[in-house]
Amino acid sequence: MLKKYKRSKIEARKIVYLVATLIAIPVVLILISRPSIFFPSAQSVQSQIILTSANNVMPPNSVVSLEVDTGTHQLGFAQVTLLFDKDKIQLASEIKPSDVLKTVVVKSTMQEANASGVIELSLGLATQDRGNAPTGKSLLATLQFTSKSSATNDTTLISIDQANSQIVDQTPQALTMSGANFEFTLNYVAPTAAPTNSPGGIQGSASPSSSPTQQPTEQPTEQPTSIPQETATARPTFVPGPTLPPTDDTQGGTPSQGNGQVTWTTQTAQDIANEDGSRYFDSGNSSNLFIGTGASSASSYLGIRFSGPSLSSTSNIKSAKVGISASRDQWIGVSFKVSAEKTKTPLAFSSGSRMSQRSPLTASKSYSDNIKWFGGEIYYYDVTEQVKEAVKASSGDVNSLALIFQGQGNAYGRKNIVSSGQNSPKLVVDYDGESSAYGGSVGGGSVMDPIVEPVQNFFTRFINFFRSRFRR
User: Fold this and answer.
1) What is the pTM of this model?
2) CATH code for residues 47-185
3) CA-CA-CA-CA torsion for 444, 450, 451, 455, nearest 10 degrees?
């Protein structure tokens, strides 16, 4: 009797697993057929991921609400990935999903999240709720955080990993997304009022001035609005921390062979420059270079000439990203298109050799982001196809490359960047030694690999979820 019971249980487990697989396959196919969900090119955002808390100062512990707003769309599925600095904060309790989406597909445990600094949550609409699917703003879960840092007036972020997040309505249609990071202040100590001498006597103030910092003369005098305009975006990847991974790479050397990574940097002040209409300035005569659109909406450029260890033209470029550091806190929407210059040996920039005078290669990618930048933090932009095309177009070994960022937004839609020192822009290229043919240009910010990988991961997690449920 016991053997018969065990055999029946095994057969039942196989049937449930088969049904789960059959359900997951069409979901994966639907998601793969919609590449715009990760790099939307539409001009309207259909959903928002929202992080809120009544208390952004710790200690004491803070409870963060994770919400989504789908407007008029009926919410069917939500996958949200959050990143945090595990050395500064950690979860104080298990994640508590709400009853809006009752089907829990994936939920990180407190132990998993605190060990990795990554929170994964995937929730689906229960079958019995399909006739009453939520619209507008919905609470997905609450998360309680506690501080680990002992530094006074320390700060840290919870950031939304948009490349591994998605919101799906009941159609099912993957909705375009926007979202903003959430900042904590840790171990807050109020500043002491510092008296200062003035013609009218001694006056002091315990709070900083709310007046904006005066812009240097090379910046346009007209100031843009401080209220960001909502746009659909191909998101840069936010990476907490002031620097890129350290590297011992130096210019020149032996061509790369086998698997590896090279980091290219700017070498001179003329390797990074802005062109704004008739005006030209580089990091040698300005400390306020920008990415995006300056005073001239028709002719705004950022040019960056990178150089470093030689890379073979037969190398298979697996990924390439530009790390750009914000020079200060700022929040305004920026739009631009990036492409590589059509030459194996790009010259340094100058007033007589501007970005607008350079010939670009075919591959280009448009970005539009509307998120707050924090001073000293690094924001990565994917330029894999641009670097791949430039390397394949060259013969022999390559040790330099110029990227041209052309502003595509409204006038003054720009963010200031660090243009010199150890936090100046860096190009990080991952490669292997096998030769592969260049696959053509990519337009509109749609790249297949970043779409397939999260969907494959979702499929794997979906199957593993049902395996764990019916393992015993």
Assistant:
1) 0.44
2) 2.60.40.680
3) -170
